[in-house]
């Protein structure tokens, strides 16, 4: 019984830690996005990294909390990612900040 509880706890912790990851997979271009949110605060950051984990672009949303599991939020994140890759900076509305990081 003790082994069962330990095994169950390990499996549960592995499932929780893997589902909390909010990032895209590497694309053909070698970049990926990461969403960072703060618990209890309406604030999100979309960060775009390259293969070497160098930050390329930072997009802050103040007053909006993104959830990468929701379809509309994921589409918005992918829109930001694709427009950055195409060389176009996304439209910045009030309460948003964008910063291109030069290597």
Write the layout of secondary structure elements.
Blueprint: H1 2-19, E1 32-37, E2 43-49, E3 55-62, H2 71-85, E4 96-100
Structure notes:
This protein is of the alpha+beta class and 103 residues long. It has one domain (23-100). The protein has helices at residues 2-19, 71-85; strands at 32-37, 43-49, 55-62, 96-100. A 4-stranded antiparallel beta sheet has the order 1-2-3-4, covered by helices on one side. The model is unreliable at 15-21 (pLDDT under 50).
Features:
alpha+beta; 2 helices; 103 residues; extended; four-stranded antiparallel sheet; 25% strand; 32% helix
In short:
The chain is an alpha+beta fold and 103 residues long. The chain is 32% helix and 25% strand.
Count of the domains? 1
Mean pLDDT: 75
Span between N and C termini?
55 Å
Structural class: alpha+beta
**What percent strand?**
25-35%
